[in-house]
Amino acid sequence: MPVLHAVALAAVFLFLAKALAWGIQRVRGNAGIVDGIWAWALGLLALGFAAVGPAPEPARWLMGLMGLAWGARLGTYLWRRNWASAEDWRYAQFRAEWGPQAQFKMFWFFQFQNIFTLLLAGSAFLPAAYREGQPPVWALVLAAVIWLVAVLGEGLADAQLKAFKANPAHRGKVCDVGLWRHSRHPNYFFECVHWLAYLPLAWGSPLWVYSLIAPAVMWLLITKMSGVPLLEREMAQRKPGYAEYMRRTNQLIPGPVKA
């Protein structure tokens, strides 16, 4: 399938996926469910691009399986967490500010997010699916190793945070155990690492440079836009001890605790 046709189909798929997410949040009153659908949709796009791309099978199917497994793990975690919880304060704030137009604006806000989703999918998955020639064996191994470290690390960070919050003795306290002792956002750190896993699969191809866009976009989203800035501003105001936690703990990259 020509690459432009694949991108067009991906855009239609994302529009429908976010429309479904909007319909569910309209019934549930919880826009956070879109996060799980976002991850699932990206995983399915990886598999779809692997199926229609002309690249040699090892590179594109490794890419497809990595993307699908990542999306299945993260999407299921986010879906279960958000389905059973109150609406994330950021979505709740949007809903309050938008008033009577909340549903209309929420629909198009979901669709606006597809710009970044399509940019992630296109830059990470398409170079591996539409490359010419086979990448070297070391590149396939490196891609798998980076992916494994990223997914296991993000899964561990999610599990540690979930266990901390489940303990009634920790109510109102800052999670600073395990990976969270060395990074304020270890889950975000490993999410950024995950998008580096697709670079080796495009190595040796003129398309390789485009693979750099995905980790750059994810880093920008997390550190400058919807991730860390909004979350930390709210946490520093609401949660006692968080300002001190920010002082002694690296923001993203795990490191030693500061005195």
TrEMBL record:
Pfam entry (one): DUF1295
Q: Which UniProt keywords apply?
A: Membrane, Transmembrane, Transmembrane helix
**Does the UniProt entry include the keyword Cell membrane?**
no
Tell me if Transmembrane is a UniProt keyword of this record: yes
TM segment ranges: 37-54, 108-130, 137-157, 207-231
PROSITE patterns for the chain: S5A_REDUCTASE
InterPro entries given for it?
UstE-like
For this UniProt entry, what's an example GO CC term? membrane
The name under which this protein is listed is DUF1295 domain-containing protein
